[in-house]
Write a structure and sequence with these properties.
Length: 151
């Protein structure tokens, strides 16, 4: 182990003791990725696109707690708070004015569960594939027109 220098003590005194995986804690509203059951982005929270998955996760994990991003407007968080109250899940609103995150809500435990896939990927991939197929159709029409005119 290395000894602490005077600078280390001064830094700890001014800014507090540095937490392990601090960037991860900032991103996931104060918790670590290894503790998360489900994470919703701000966009998913605002559009309620992940509300069904959140309800399923809450049913499967009744001892978990819900962390909500305080920077998201209350009207967008209403469905999540209603779910938490319905299933008697403790929820906390986390507001960090110094750091920004794209996470809107996190269902988490106080201990590690090591769940591999914590994000809702299926719906995002479906939306992206629909957008790609539309652009492919447009490209094929334009390419046909270009061939007709020899461009």
């Amino acid at each position: 182990m290395s000894k602490k220098s005077v600078d280390d003590y001064l830094t700890d005194g001014l800014y507090g003791t540095r937490l392990p995986k601090e960037n991860e804690r900032i991103k996931f509203l104060g918790t670590l990725r290894e503790r998360i059951v489900l994470a919703l982005t701000i966009g998913q929270v605002m559009t309620d696109s992940g509300i069904n998955k959140l309800e399923e996760a809450i049913k499967e994990n009744p001892k978990a707690k819900l962390l909500i991003n305080g920077h998201v407007s209350y009207r967008f968080l209403k469905a999540e708070k209603v779910l938490a109250n319905k299933y008697n899940i403790h929820y906390t609103t986390i507001t960090n004015n110094e750091k920004d995150t794209d996470i809107g809500a996190v269902l988490t435990y106080d201990y590690a569960i090591e769940k591999e896939n914590i994000f809702i990927e299926e719906e995002q991939q479906n939306e992206e594939s629909e957008a790609v197929s539309e652009t492919d159709d447009q490209k094929s029409i334009f390419s046909k027109v270009k061939k007709w005119f020899g461009l």
